[in-house]
Known about the structure:
114 residues; mainly alpha; 0% strand
Amino acid sequence: CEFTGLSDALVSGYGEYVQEWLTFTAVIVNAFGFAVQELLENMTVLSLCQRLKDMAAQTSRRERDDFFLYSRWQGLCVSKETGKIMANIRGQRAAATRLVSAIKSGTFVEHTQA
Length: 114
């Protein structure tokens, strides 16, 4: 971490950060699957794909990145008490509700407020 500067920004070590990031990514991927399953009850595959494409086109990279900050998922798939990722079905389904809400609204922006 000497050359990356990560040691300056992280409370935990780089290895722990990578593990948390991988766990969070896995939770979000599974949550996305649950969200898609729910959304397809009322949308076609084509309309869902178009909605996601429109969302990407209408938001900046920063807004999309901010949507996925750990702090924005506290109480869903990130423990409020420990800040650790909750990689269980409950956490994944809770994260799915946030994804469904964002996709239904067609924007990440309203859902980035802490």
